[in-house]
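Regression test case RT-17, inverse folding.

Input:
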């Protein structure tokens, strides 16, 4: 006749310790993965905002039209003029309240705070500096982002060809 052996306390402790080690490893892996995921999402969002603002401005200039640099209470404004029918319209690109904004309006309107407040928010942007180079055929645009990065765009005043660099 065979006798059943009673389980030893060491066997039970070993199984419980093995289960605890597995559970601890699984929890640590989930925590590490969520941290990596959060950092990846933050980096993707910052890159998206950086690329979106510079690409948006470059594309607007490539669409053509006469270009002018204006100043307003919000800072520098890039004005792109086009004639539609017999009227001249302007697309204004500027930074307001932490956003790159666009406003499409008849060109004869004066550039006031009330008019610029009606602009559509495009993407987050801390500020924008717009100037021309010495030859005045190249427009230099510095995009200041919330994370401290500065993108510098060099755009041809005639074709919208661009060079984009991060400072």
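Golden output:
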């Amino acid at each position: 006749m065979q006798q059943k052996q009673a389980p030893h306390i060491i066997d039970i402790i070993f199984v419980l310790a093995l289960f605890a080690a597995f559970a601890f490893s699984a929890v640590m892996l989930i925590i590490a993965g969520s941290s990596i995921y959060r950092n990846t999402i933050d980096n993707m969002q910052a890159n998206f905002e950086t690329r979106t603002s510079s690409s948006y401005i470059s594309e607007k200039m490539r669409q053509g039209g006469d270009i002018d640099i204006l100043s307003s209470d919000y800072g520098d404004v890039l004005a792109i003029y086009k004639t539609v029918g017999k009227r001249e319209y302007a697309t204004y690109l500027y930074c307001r309240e932490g956003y790159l904004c666009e406003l499409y309006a008849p060109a004869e309107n004066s550039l006031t705070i009330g008019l610029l407040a009606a602009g559509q928010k495009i993407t987050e942007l801390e500020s924008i500096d717009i100037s021309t180079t010495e030859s005045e055929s190249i427009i230099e645009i510095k995009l200041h982002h919330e994370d401290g990065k500065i993108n510098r765009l060099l755009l041809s005043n005639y074709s919208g060809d661009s060079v984009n660099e991060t400072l």
